């Protein structure tokens, strides 16, 4: 069911996040440990977004398994960033496999990822979709639950919601409309990362000047902490705060 991660802190190479750790995102793509709700590997594409200096994020997305991309190892070794969001995808049955369906989804400074599934898709959330501007629906990156979730979050951000409220409000609305959905969302602007834990695993590691959020810990470092279900995490390089998602 997809695996995602976010890093904020001193610049590191993408390789240090994607390839080097013993349980790196690449390893999690073919040997995940905690895939709740189905799926065995995350082979239906991947995406990496990073912030080069102060500019808008750059994305590299593909429909291929992350382990089979011939360009990625060199690209990852040569690319250094202080803010990164990356994901590997296990497509929900019936959803298309193409690069546009792979996270991160993006607008302006924002990068977004979803780990999970919307139950009863698409009928269960037809009412929520209908409340969006039609242009947003016509320009979805892909006809998938994750792309619609991004449109719902983005709509709230555009209306001025802070990122915490945009995620929490989207999770509440979708959970009401589609009970049993798994809604682990991850959003960053390169300075702060916000994540929800609703149906899937998430662990966090704060080291004082860097913070990592990941579906599964990347290594055995004792600083990793699992975030309980039904919670929301707000993280900056200086540390993190966890609070109940609320009802
Ligand atoms: N349901 C989403 C998709 O198919 C996310 C999948 C996941 O978490 N495995 O794109």
Automatic annotation (TrEMBL):
The keyword Transferase applies. GO terms for biological process: ergothioneine biosynthetic process. Residues 2-247 form the Glutamine amidotransferase type-2 domain. GO terms for molecular function: hydrolase activity, acting on carbon-nitrogen (but not peptide) bonds, in linear amides; transferase activity. Pathway: Amino-acid biosynthesis; ergothioneine biosynthesis. PROSITE patterns: GATASE_TYPE_2. Its EC number is 3.5.1.118. The keyword Hydrolase applies. It catalyses: gamma-L-glutamyl-hercynylcysteine S-oxide + H2O = S-(hercyn-2-yl)-L-cysteine S-oxide + L-glutamate. It is an enzyme of class 3 (hydrolase). Keywords: Glutamine amidotransferase, Hydrolase, Transferase. Catalyzes the hydrolysis of the gamma-glutamyl amide bond of hercynyl-gamma-L-glutamyl-L-cysteine sulfoxide to produce hercynylcysteine sulfoxide, a step in the biosynthesis pathway of ergothioneine. NCBIfam families: ergothioneine biosynthesis protein EgtC. HAMAP family: EgtC. This is Gamma-glutamyl-hercynylcysteine sulfoxide hydrolase. It comes from Micromonospora pallida.
């Amino acid at each position: 069911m997809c695996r995602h991660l976010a890093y904020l802190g001193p610049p590191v190479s993408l390789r240090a996040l994607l390839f080097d750790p013993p349980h790196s995102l690449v390893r999690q793509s073919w040997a995940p440990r905690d895939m709740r709700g189905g799926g065995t590997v995350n082979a239906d594409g991947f995406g990496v977004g990073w912030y080069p200096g102060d500019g808008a994020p750059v994305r590299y997305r593909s429909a291929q398994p992350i382990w089979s991309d011939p360009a990625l190892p060199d690209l990852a070794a040569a690319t250094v960033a202080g803010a990164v969001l990356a994901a590997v995808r296990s497509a929900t049955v019936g959803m298309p496999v193409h690069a546009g369906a792979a996270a991160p989804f993006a607008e302006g400074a924002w990068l977004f990822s979803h780990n999970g599934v919307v139950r009863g898709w698409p009928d269960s959330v037809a009412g929520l979709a209908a409340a969006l501007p039609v242009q947003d629906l016509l320009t979805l990156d892909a006809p998938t639950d994750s792309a619609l979730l991004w449109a719902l979050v983005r709509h709230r951000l555009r209306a001025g919601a802070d990122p915490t409220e945009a995620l929490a409000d989207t999770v509440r609305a979708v959970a009401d409309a589609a009970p049993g959905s798994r809604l682990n969302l991850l959003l960053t602007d390169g300075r702060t990362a916000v994540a929800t834990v609703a149906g899937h695993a998430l662990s966090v590691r704060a080291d004082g000047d860097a913070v990592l959020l990941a579906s599964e810990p990347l290594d055995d470092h004792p600083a990793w902490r699992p975030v309980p279900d039904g919670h929301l995490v707000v993280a900056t390089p200086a540390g993190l705060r966890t609070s109940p998602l609320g009802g």
